[in-house]
Amino acid sequence: MVFSVLSEDLPDSLKLKILKKWISESGKSSAAKESSSKSTVDLERIVYSKIVDDRGLELIKKVKQLYPEIYPTVLTILHDLINKGVVNELDGYTLYVLFNKYLNIPVKPDIRIRFVKRGKEVDFKEYLEK
Q1: Boundaries of domain holding 56
Q2: How many domains does the chain have?
Q3: Residue 119: CB partners within 8 Å, gap ≥ 6?
Q4: How many Cβ atoms from other residues are within 10 Å of residue 94's Cβ?
Q5: pTM score, two decimals?
Q6: How far apart (Å, rounded) are the C-alpha atoms in residues 90 and 94?
């Protein structure tokens, strides 16, 4: 997670309080912003362009599927975080922490078990062969 605004010298508890306050203020003002000229499609395009891995994409699609009523608000908050420079890029871990810890949206990534043999990803049967 990349935070350019928060100093590494600050204690974690203070960082947490600052982020929670900032996110709650963003959530309050998001209702007014939703009625503005920016559409969900534009916000989606901007937010999706900052996602750097498959897990991040998977998590945001799960939020869209499981919580369609709050999805526009989530997009607005993520867009604000990007515009203000709090988050430069969105990866799976960053989105997971934002959704579960700060926005209280319980989203879990799918569990995948990968088997690698001699530098190649293989299925379980081939992995057990000599």
Answers
A1: 37-128
A2: 1
A3: none
A4: 24
A5: 0.61
A6: 6
